[in-house]
Amino acid sequence: MPEGSGDFGLGYHQSVAGCMSDAIGEHGLGSDQLDALGKELQLPWSDLKQALDAGSLALLRVPEATSDIDDAAAALEQLSDCAGTIVFFGTGGSSLGGQTLAQLGGWNIPGEMTTGQLKRPRTRFYDNFDARTLARALALLDLTRTRFVVISKSGNTPETLAQAIAALDAVKAAGLGAHVSRMFLAVTEPGVDGRQNGLRALMEAHDVPILEHHTGIGGRFSALTNVGLLPAMAQGLDPFAVRAGARAVVEAMRQCDDPLAFAPGLGAAVAVGLARHRGNRVSVMMPYSDRLGRFAHWYAQLWAESLGKGGAGFTPVAALGPVDQHSQLQLYMDGPRDHLLTFLRTVAPADGPELSPELAKLAGLDYLAGRNIGELTHAQARAVPEALIGAGRPVRTIDIETLDEQTMGALMMHFMTETILAAGLLGIDPFDQPAVETGKRLARARLEKGA
After folding, report:
1. What global pTM score does this model have?
2. N or C end of the chain: smaller count of CB under 10 Å?
3. What b-and-e string marks burial along 244-254, b requiring 16 or more CB atoms within 10 Å of the CB?
4. Is the pLDDT of residue 442 over 60?
């Protein structure tokens, strides 16, 4: 069986051994079934490789670009002048990729403070459109030191536009109207063929700088563009390293002739195969690191919105270890056999407070005496998958050598290409979202009718 380990200098190692019948018996995928899926994958694999060679799929070309990073860095530097907080408005793919990368730098992790962070503005994300949350934020923020980044590919996302309008009104009401042009930054598509772009019109009317959203890359695939890299840079992360990691995955694809020897290809085949042959239609993403918490949610959107079409697809679940050992593990271990679990874990134990031998023994934790917290998490991240495999539950593990910008870029490109190849096996288009658009149209119709 191909290992598909990702050993191309990508910074991670994938193993699907825990998904195979050799490990979990009748509940696993047979090697003959995997071989058949590999043959079935040849056509979508060939199509993807041709797109790579022809340069026709923008997602695969973006890792080589640099000029857009320079433009984003210059705009961010200007925006950050005298700023205490940078607020990011956007929803779905316009926010989750940025949150995922920003979290690598310590955003939204209790107690986390990276070196030099005090010299940078804080970052805050408002991706869910909640009236009370937005009203309280605008009332409590020190608007004189707050800056706003508004992101929408089409420029017509009503939630994001409403956030932007509310923020503009709040800034003007605070007597800061003359400073709007240096307090806001927008990311949206350029005007094309006369199509309406509400965000562009709104920002241009206020002389606000605008960065161009890549026209060939949709929101949930945009993490490696300025959409995701702006929040990363706001957290002091290296955008070039993020793209270098993604570029390594693309280069690995270029070098592979067999899709099952390519880590994302093997992942796609196993996921589709388990769903087809064993009924595993729930895909659980469970990292063992707070810095990967938003990654699981980013994955959930990518997997759900790209593959849930025409009766096909999977139900993704974002989990987090070890906390969800105490809330979800019972279901995964002893509930319906419809889950495929992917564990993301670091190779080396993290540091952390060392437990006093005296106090550990007093608490009945002799086995933890003199050990640090990271050792406990490290052990749990290995024991839980072993227990699940022992119970005949399919498990994929991804072991991360060093959790940094380059590895994160590689992981994001891994799962985006895995999603595209899974869509090829399912015979669907991974890049559209017709059901989402229907919901948007119905919501607008209700408001126009005064409902």
Report:
1. 0.93
2. C
3. ebbbbbbebbe
4. no
- DSSP3 helix / strand / coil % (the chain, rounded to 5): 55, 10, 30
Q: Residues near 334 by Cβ (< 8 Å), separated by ≥ 6?
A: 391
Average pLDDT over residues 276-296: 97
Nearest to 157 by CA among 184, 128, 131: 128
85 phi and psi angles, rounded to 5 deg? -145, 135
Q: Please state the rounded mean pLDDT for residues 357-364.
A: 95
Give the Cα separation of 397 and 287 in Å (integer): 10
Picking from 106, 142, 141, the residue whose alpha carbon sits closest to that of residue 126 is 141
Residue given tokens 């906390």 in the structure block: 323
Rounded Cα distance between 326 and 312, Å, is 31
Domain range list for the chain:
12-40+241-434, 61-237
- In sequence order, the β-bridge partners of residue 341 are 284, 395
* Common-topology check for domains 12-40+241-434 and 61-237: yes
Indicate which residues carry an active-site annotation. Answer: 305, 326, 440
- Compute the mean pLDDT over every residue in the chain, rounded to the nearest whole number: 92
Q: Tell the CATH superfamily of the 12-40+241-434 domain.
A: Glucose-6-phosphate isomerase like protein; domain 1 (3.40.50.10490)
d(C-alpha 28, C-alpha 31), whole Å = 9
Separation between Cα atoms, residue 306 and residue 417, nearest integer Å:
11
Strand 210-212 to 184-188 pairing: parallel
**Per-residue confidence band for 411, with pLDDT thresholds at 50, 70 and 90:** very high
- Confidence bin at 350 (pLDDT 50/70/90): confident
> First vs last Cα of the chain: how many Å apart?
58
User: What pairs with residue 87 in β-bridges?
Assistant: 124, 148
Q: Residue 94 CA to chain centroid, in angstroms?
A: 11
Check if CATH label 3.40.630.30 holds for domain 61-237.
no
**For residue 324, pLDDT beyond 50:** yes
59, with CB counted inside 10 A (0-12, 13-18, 19+), is buried
Q: What is the pLDDT of residue 363?
A: 95
